[in-house]
Amino acid sequence: MDDLLRDIDAVLLMGPGPSCVPPQVYEALARPTIGHMDPAFIGIMDRIKVMLQELMRTTNPVTLPMSGTGSAGMETCFANLVEPGDRVLILVNGVFGQRMADVAARLGGQVETLEFDWGTPVDPGAVEQHLASGDRRALVAVVHAETSTGVRNPVEHLAPLVRAHGALYLVDAVTSLGGAPVDVDAWAVDALYSGTQKCLSVPPGLAPVTLSARAVDKLRGRSSKVSSWYLDLNMITQYWEGASRVYHHTAPVNMLYGLYAGLQLILDEGLDKVHARHTAAHARLVAGLEQLGLEMLVEPDFRLPMLNAVRVPANVDEAAVRRRLLQHHRIEIGAGLGPLAGQIWRIGLMGHTARAENVDRFLTALQDSLP
Amino acid sequence: MDDLLRDIDAVLLMGPGPSCVPPQVYEALARPTIGHMDPAFIGIMDRIKVMLQELMRTTNPVTLPMSGTGSAGMETCFANLVEPGDRVLILVNGVFGQRMADVAARLGGQVETLEFDWGTPVDPGAVEQHLASGDRRALVAVVHAETSTGVRNPVEHLAPLVRAHGALYLVDAVTSLGGAPVDVDAWAVDALYSGTQKCLSVPPGLAPVTLSARAVDKLRGRSSKVSSWYLDLNMITQYWEGASRVYHHTAPVNMLYGLYAGLQLILDEGLDKVHARHTAAHARLVAGLEQLGLEMLVEPDFRLPMLNAVRVPANVDEAAVRRRLLQHHRIEIGAGLGPLAGQIWRIGLMGHTARAENVDRFLTALQDSLP
Fold first, then answer.
1. DSSP states of A110-175 as a string?
2. CB B37 within 8 A of CB B186
3. CB–CB of A227 and B107 under 8 A?
4. How many interface pairs between A and B have CB atoms less than 8 angstroms apart?
């Protein structure tokens, strides 16, 4: 093995993702590659689909991992559900809401955004009022866990407003899935995507997505082809479903082994227990940060357990602290993005990372790294 | 580890890809995940880029692996280089030429195809004549190694015609790269993409691409945004180049470890030796097939070493032969696609698979599996 690979020194990944990967997932990645049409591989695909349905709490038949990272999941949902000229409303309170607006506009959507202050949640009252104005929107989209700010948006309270308006409801669950409840069917979400490298604790590279029957109706009834051949679910579902398994593109076989193992670990532990582990690690972290005199960016009711935004104290060189954490303590945390650059650190407690011993190791290292 | 993963029984992969993966690549996939902005990871990215340049024989600064499979590489090149209304000529003699036409049309290209019989190569004389008719095309695209038929198209002889016409020249090297010479700069190719699961012998999931200075000029001078946010090279190059490394999407870290290891193995062996190994394995296979009384689909001058299309003898159930090979001998070969379904088998000798002992094992197994 070449030096650069041999020299990789494990890092405690407490940034905005990727998160720490459990040994069983590494083992899975290194299982022998077999063909993407091999009946043994089809069996693995079928189990992945069932496990994703369980994790997302949905019976949607169209539930599968796309062959790209979380951002490809975002693009998949917009590319398949938005036709040129469709009116799309994006609720924006961070980088990933902004990214949604960019993605949807490139695909020909007639995009409007409703903006909320970064660090605060989307307000359902304002959304209701906004929806009452103007023409009917074809789709309304929101980020569940805004990774850039640590805010949990009230996606469950927005669902009835969007449904009453007659729009499809699209939710970004990249950072929430596997770390907090995501209840696709009960919330009446029409399309949802995630990524593997956050609370699923699988390396980056796959994007689980699910579409409701209403979303599939929209997809099947399009008057134009999906502009992306690679992400066209009309074709990809023929590979993931049914008896014939029509080849579309060569599935990322070993990454799918990794996802299989990651999902198995979560479901073996039990979804409720996994969520409780995230909540407990978060509470321990917040208590420790406050003891160090640090302040959280987000109000308690809207904090994400898996992504903690902490204000950088005045006169502290935030990049120097992150460098010291990485170089001296082998711990990665994240910087602020956009208007919050230099203002916050983003401390991830995602999936396998969300454990008391990691919180304690981090708090000790942070104390050492602060000036 | 769950049964389905533990029970995976290694297969000698002699289909149209994925190919057999060397142990060093599996080891690489299982190295510890680190952050996509970690300086150690940036170092690995930089080496991957240099190794890809060496493999593709190019000095193009825009040379990097896209975060998707080979088909995402195809879409990347068309999405970045074709603007709505651009005239695009696709030379078609198989499934992947057809796919190019579909991809380009979805992106708004004004697509025309010039078709050649499946199993025969693209004819430069016909292309020259065709280019002389009609308006100037913005881009001409061709598949180097047509995986659906086993034909090598004369991409080096088409290059001067395309250049004289004033078009960008786009080449699909998904199946050829790493198994036969691909000489991007000498051939004056403007855009080229490949995949990891063929002659690079890395599992599927990444798509190396390269763009010439002329292609980059076209990209930078676009009047419309690239319709795909996920594949927009204007942004992705800011993550792969320079000092600032602007975050775009979370790179597929462990897959990139695998690519690193796969490239290293090829360059350590030496490109010429690797190509010679493919040629030798191909000659051994063809001799053995002919001894069994089987016929090749393609004329000797245009055969690919890494993808061998063999005619199914009359009255043989081709699917039954493939099933027996897989179930009794743990060897995968491919079926025919499109008009060649049922007519041919596709026998891959790609990357790590292209060795005399594999050819011999396959020939013995095939003899046993024929009626």
1. EEEEEE--TTS---HHHHHHHHHSSSPPSEEEEESEETTTTEEP-HHHHHHHHHHHT-EEEEE-TT
2. no
3. yes
4. 235
- Chain-centroid distance of CA A36 in Å reads 26
pLDDT score of B16 more than 80: yes
- Predicted confidence (pLDDT) per residue in B250-259, tens digit: 999 999 999 9
| B197 at A interface, C-beta within 8 A | yes
Domains in chain A, CATH or no CATH each = 3-18+270-369 (3.90.1150.10), 24-267 (3.40.640.10)
Using the Cβ of B367 and the Cβ atoms of chain A, whether some distance falls under 8 Å is answered with no
- Please tell me whether the peptide bond between B18 and the residue prior to it is cis, using omega within 30 degrees of 0: yes
Taking the mean position of all CA atoms in its chain, how far away is CA B265? 18
What would the two tokens of residue A206 be?
């796959």
Taking contacts as CB-CB distances below 8 angstroms, the residues of chain B near A337 are 247
Q: Is the pLDDT of residue B1 over 80?
A: no
Gap between the Cα atoms of A58 and A52, Å rounded: 9
Q: Which of A84, A161, A149, A165 is nearest to A116 (CA)?
A: A149
Q: DSSP 3-state assignment of A296?
A: strand
Give B315 to chain A, closest Cα distance, Å.
Answer: 24
Contact A18 B257 (CB under 8 A): no
Dihedral of alpha carbons B293, B296, B299, B300, sign: negative
82-141 in A: which are within 8 Å (CB) of B?
99, 102-103, 105-108
How far is C-alpha A365 from the geometric centre of its chain's CA atoms?
A: 27
pLDDT in tens, B92-127: 999 999 999 999 999 999 999 999 999 999 999 999
